[in-house]
Amino acid sequence: MNIDFMHQPGNTAARIFLSPGETCTVEGGAMIAMSGHLDVQTTTHKKGAGGFFKAAKRLFAGESLFLNHFTATREAGEVWLGSSLAGDMMRYDLDNETLIVQAGSFVACEHDVNMDMGWQGFKNLVSGESMFWLKLSGKGQVVLNSFGAIYPVEVDGEYIVDTGHIVAFNETLDFSLTKAGKSWLSSLLGGEGLVCKFRGRGTVWCQSHNPASFGFSLSPALRPRKA
Question: What is the distance of C-alpha 46 from the center of its chain?
Fold first, then answer.
């Protein structure tokens, strides 16, 4: 599977080339276009390992209930992928490790990549984020998207990131929720509230825009539709 990113960084689309026999697993609704001869199979989980319970966890994580599996059977083909919010995309090569992905950031992966949901506890519910985060493990390529720019932050010790700006991070990092300022009052008045404090050594990929904040900024301008 070969991946090319087009029109980076503001309105990125992923062009994925599949050799005969290769399969790409894609988030439901992410396809823009594809070669006419590709075979498409829709499941609630990984191809050949479906299950409604795992699909239900995907809904809790903010992902689509369904996954599409594109296979080049007789000859090579391509599929174009996009995201719901304007921004950038990145490729990550899993090498027998685990990557934790925030809700809505998963786009696609190679068929051999294992996919599951990780319970993050009620600390995420308190922060307004999803209780489940996607866990990608094994070996293979992964495509992620961001709202706005995406950039890596190398952590060696401690680092604080706003919960709404997290795209993904290495499982080698531990994290906890904490207040942004010295006191709860300053955190709330400053508009930051709860943030994630990462500890250990690894990488956190961040996005420049916060989807929730963007939604709140739009809501005063959205008028009810007249009958």
Answer: 16
Query: Per-domain residue ranges for the chain?
Result: 2-219
Q: Which residue has the tokens 């276009």?
A: 33
Backbone angles phi, psi at 156, to 5 degrees: -140, 85
Hey, is 180 helix, strand or coil? coil
**Under a CB-based contact definition with an 8 Å cutoff, are residues 7 and 13 in contact?**
yes
Q: Tell me the per-residue pLDDT of 142-196, one tens digit each, with 9 for 90 and over.
A: 999 999 999 999 999 999 998 889 999 999 999 887 766 565 555 455 555 678 8
0.90 exceeded by pTM? no
3-state SS assignment for residue 83? coil
CB atoms < 10 A from the CB of 172, how many?
Answer: 12
3-state secondary structure 3-39: EEEECCCCCCEEEEEECCCCEEEEECCCEEEECCCCE
- pLDDT, tens only, 106-115: 999 999 999 8
* Residue that the structure tokens 């739009």 belong to: 218
Q: ω into residue 9 within 30 of 0, thus cis?
A: yes
Q: Which has the minimum average pLDDT: 38-42, 88-92, 121-125, 193-197?
A: 121-125
Is the Cβ–Cβ distance between 191 and 206 less than 8 Å? no
List, in sequence order, every residue forming a beta bridge with 6; answer none if it has no partner.
13
117-133 burial string, b = 16+ CB within 10 Å, else e?
Answer: bbebeebbeebebbbbb
Fold for 2-219, please state it: Double-stranded beta-helix (3.60.160)
Q: How far apart are CA 185 and CA 120, in angstroms?
A: 26
